[in-house]
Write the C-alpha cells for this entry.
Amino acid sequence: MPLATRLTVRDLFYVLAIMLVWGVNFPVAKIGVAAVPPLFLLAIRFAVVGLLVIPFFPRPRRQWGWLLLLSCMLGVVHFGILFFALRSVDSALAAVLIQAQVPFSTLLGIVILKERPSRITLIGMAIALVGVAIVFGEPHGPSSAFAAGLVVFAAFVWSCSNLVSKRLTSLHPLAMTGWMALLTAPQLALLSFFLETGQIPALANSGWVVAGALAYMIVGATLFAYGGWYTLMQRYPLSTLSPYALTAPIFGVFASVIALGEPFTLKAAFGAALTLGGVGLLTLVRRPPKA
C-alpha cells in the first residue's frame, strides 16, 4: 500500500505536537541537570525507558554487538556530553547547535560511504556549518564557549551513531530505543559513580523539579514523541515528515527564552537562520547520489 504524501489535518497537529515536545525538552533537560548531576540523571532516564519499553518487544538476535556500540556512542557519549554541556550553555543555543548533526551526517556519507553529493547538497552543508560557527561564537565566557564546543561534538557523535543504527534496520525503532536504553543505563551509572558526587542528596533535595523533568523526558520526549514519530513514518514517507523536524529547534529557542529567560541576540538569530536554512536544503532537496 503506497504511503500518503500529504498530512491530514489531524496528523499535521500530531507532528507539530511531537516537534513542540522535542523542542521544549532542551530547557527541561537544563532544569534537570541544574539540580542533579547529568550522568546520574541520564542513568535514571534510560533505565526507566528501557524497563517500560522492552516488555513489549522480543529479545533481539545476533545484534547485541551493534546495540552495545550504539549505546556507547549515542546513549553514553552523545547524551552524556550534551547533558554535561547544558550546565554551562544556554539551552536555546544548544537547540540550534545540535542541528550540526545534519551536515555532519552528509559529510560522513561523502567521506565514509563515498557518496558523490550534488551541488545543492554542498551549498546546504556549507550554509549550515557557517550558521553553526556564528552561533558557536555567541556564548560569552570560557566555560560557555567550551560547552558550546561540546554540543557541536555531541552532534558529530550523533551523526556517527547514525551509521551504526543503519545496521539495526531489522529491529523495530522503539525496540532499538528500549534495548539501547537498558544497555546505556548501567554504563552511565558506573561513570556517575566515578566522576560525580552528591547524586543521592541532590536527587532527594530536588523535589518535584527533577521528578517533573524526568517524567517529561521519559513520557513526553521518548515514549510520546518517538512513538508518535515512528507511527507517522509508517503512514508517510520521510521526505514528507522531514521538513517539520526543522520546527523543533525553533520551539526549543522560544521555550528557552520564555521559560528560562535566556537571551537570544540578533547575531544568534542570524546564525540560527543560516543553520536551519542549510539544514532545510539538505533535508528538503534530496537527490539520489551519483554513481
